[in-house]
Amino acid sequence: MKKISQTDIKRDSEKSPRLSKLANFFAQSNFGAVTRVRKLSDVEVWKRSVGYHKLIAYINNTSSVIQGIRQSDDYPVSETMSRLLTIFDKLENLLAANPPIYMAGSIKGSLDKDRRGNPAYRNWSRHMLRDIFPILEQAVSNKNCIHINELGQYLCESFGNSTRMSYGTGHELSFLFFLCALFEAEILDEDDLAASALLLFDRYLKFVRRLQVLYNLYAAGRHGAYSLDDFQFVPFLWGCAQLSYNAPFVPNRMLDADVVSEYKKDYMLMGCVGHISDTKDGTFAMHSSQLWCIASLSSWNELYGGLLDMYDKVVLRQFDLMQLARFGQLISFDKVKPGAVLIQAQLGVMSPLQQKILEGEDDVEEEQNWENAEPTKKSIRKNKKKPLLESSPPKSHSAISSGVRCSSLSDICVYLRKITDMESCPIEASYKEPIAGHSDDQRVIVSVSTPRVQETIFKFHTRLVEPSDNESD
């Protein structure tokens, strides 16, 4: 058999663009993410890996950013984030094209809820695997397409197992790998941290809930009443982070029906509690005892720390779960550098993002108040007050006219004080000519008698000029 050399491949690839693409694909050193945890000791290797440190850093950094921020707040959403959200719009179309199959013996128009796993889920999963890579390639910028293979593997593993027709926290972890890899590939930046949790992850959460209900999926790795939820964990963690600063209620009220109804659209934790209430019968002490117990903790910071330790124990250290996880260049299984420490969440303080949101709300409120308080020209003319002494008699027995604001005199400011009612009202008068015999800043007291005012004192702050030579003569 003739051996094919690299020169022959290069020559043939130049003739055909299709062969060129194939040559470039097989020439790459990495074909995507692969499983690395094959034995129990590999779990400890995973804990000391670069990927583990990056994942914990992403979870805690996101928690620090979203504390005190509701999902309905005006946080920044980039154009790339908006394109990533379109992924779920196209996956929703695949759901419409693959409706649930009614089982034999079931009533037409109704689903058999006692039988887990609808075969239509396998049809949807097959179509999803066929379309997910082109959909993802359209959602990210062209310059970052070198990571499409790895990103697509994380994403397609996020929607459950089509063989078992199940979904669990391992698939949720795969979507966390996808989110973390988006930042490592520089498709998203630091400003997208809040939107990645409150918008993109929330959209994913709503979509997989629809998968669970529509196709009646099994709960993979279910712990029954001793787990927070049959399918999810991360929204409880980030939901506590949201409530770690300026929370409108305390932890022991998070299971109250009125609190859940009021805040389930603002906080991920309350949305999870509301979903459990809608899908399970009985009290929380019966079907969700773990969730019922943690509600007795005193603070949200304490609750977050406990849930993070629990997540590390029941998810990130579980061999049965981690043996299915895939690792690549973005989420690396390589050993971390000596001396590296895990990033911790800084909770209980106002995040810079929340400060920007509050400043923006204050600016908008101030602008609205200014617009509402600014009167129109017509109202100004209508409400314009008349001069204080306009109603006074136009004629006076004194040499100074007190009936108008400006008299015929100049350069003298007049202050009128009524002795009878002890009220002060200024009068600006000006004299055309100075008063002879008075120097600057001299005060003159003039007694004026009018029919309405018996005794009046005028104080003149005079600004007199020296008389001219002709006048002095």
From TrEMBL:
Keyword Glycoprotein: no
Any GO CC annotation of this UniProt entry: protein phosphatase type 2A complex
Major location (coarse): cytoplasm
Compositional bias segments (type: Acidic residues): 360-369
CDD domains the record matches: PTPA
Reaction it catalyzes: [protein]-peptidylproline (omega=180) = [protein]-peptidylproline (omega=0)
Residue numbers spanned by region Disordered: 360-402
Single GO MF descriptor: protein tyrosine phosphatase activator activity
Subcellular localization, as worded in the UniProt entry: Cytoplasm
Top-level lineage group: Eukaryota
Keywords: Cytoplasm, Isomerase, Rotamase
Gene Ontology biological-process annotations: mitotic spindle organization
Residue stretches of biased makeup (Low complexity): 389-402
Enzyme type, top EC level: isomerase
Enzyme Commission number(s) of this protein: 5.2.1.8
Function: PPIases accelerate the folding of proteins. It catalyzes the cis-trans isomerization of proline imidic peptide bonds in oligopeptides.
Family recorded in the similarity comment: Belongs to the PTPA-type PPIase family.
Record protein name field: Serine/threonine-protein phosphatase 2A activator
